[in-house]
Fold this protein.
Amino acid sequence: MASSDDPSHREGRYDRRELLRRAGAGAVTVGVAGSGFGQAFYGPLRFKGRWLKGDLSLITWAHFVPAFDDWLDKTWAPQWGQQNDVQVKVDHINNTLLPARAQAEVAAKSGHDIFFDLAPRPQYEDNVINHNEIVQQVQHKVGKIGRIAHKATYNPKTKKYFAFSDNYVPDPVVWRHDIWNGIGMSPNTWDSVRRAAPKLKGVGHPLGIGQSAELDSNMALCSFLMCFGSFVQNAHHQVTIKNKHTVEALKFMADIYQRGETDEIFGWDPSGNNNFLYSGKGSMIFNAISATRTPEDRGLPFANDLWIWPIPKGPHGRLGYQHVMGCWWIWKFAANKAAAKKFLADLEIHYKDAFLASKFYNFPSFPGAFSFKQIRKAVAQDKHRPLGKYGVLTTIAQRYTTNPGHPGYANAAFGEMFSKFMIPQMFAQVSQKKMTAQDAVNAADREIRGIYTKWRKLGKI
């Protein structure tokens, strides 16, 4: 993860007058590279014929695949600004700082027109516009919103889209084929992972499944629970964490830690498992393909030995959350809502360019924006070894990926629970022998029920 102090991710401003001066009178007809639109492009029909003006500010993370930020900052944003006579200002900060920044902007009722985070934040529903208009306009152009994005950003109780998702990221297991092959095993099932754990640690290459208060650990451990038949809530948004499957999963993961991991997993930030793998020490992590792209870009000696597979199969199957989900929202206090709506709609309608710029990291939330068939054809062109390694991403996305809050929606109560990292905390308490599995489940159940009661009284679930 590049830090917010990285010069390549500093705040940048694109001045429409300067861009027009440099490009000449015809500059506003220039299309985004590779998107196939020019002067005739006006995005969704609602905005056809309207010439937007003013300033538009947005804040987003420093992408784990830097090429995406280069495309967003140097191609998409300035050229979109030229076409729409809008001065676009893009700010990047470390993703760990986004939640606090969002809270600060809400408190001040001032900030960016468009805010981005890597997970749904339904707890901000009262502070944002209804994004249904954007969803409808994109659907008019490319077809229905995907199931994952819909259930992650829509509140069926209030009939409101509290965010607009442009992408989600399949979450494979990334593993060192050479190391696993050396012990004659593979991470096809969680039982195989547990049996391999002491062998891997014994040869100096422990596993790396985080149990820290950070996003990667949150996603991985919630997914791990689902493989064991445990869910935080059911389809009716009732708390269901207290069950024998959760107890079994906690004991299982504690055994993996005690026999095959090191204490560092309790202190990681979102870059922790990446760096663990890049050091050459790690034998397996749960992460997106940034974990393979960086070694490829750096020319690390084991880059070709990094394989990606779907989440290991558990007693109740193979199911996981997306690694992260791109969620944009427009504050009610945004100064330029019209431009903000069009910017997000146009971004999704032409998502092929974004997908390719992300090196296959960002999958479009609207499947029609760049279909699985088109994605399979694109990833087949990748020349990194083993050849075809990225082909499994579409299988992971279609068959084994679901939304946070599954089998329900990602509601405000689930969002608060998630933002407090209660699931990683529950696992860590057991792995570190601070609590029994049953006591940890009981404690989590009490706290989560309190959160759900609060939000139910507020009419949000």
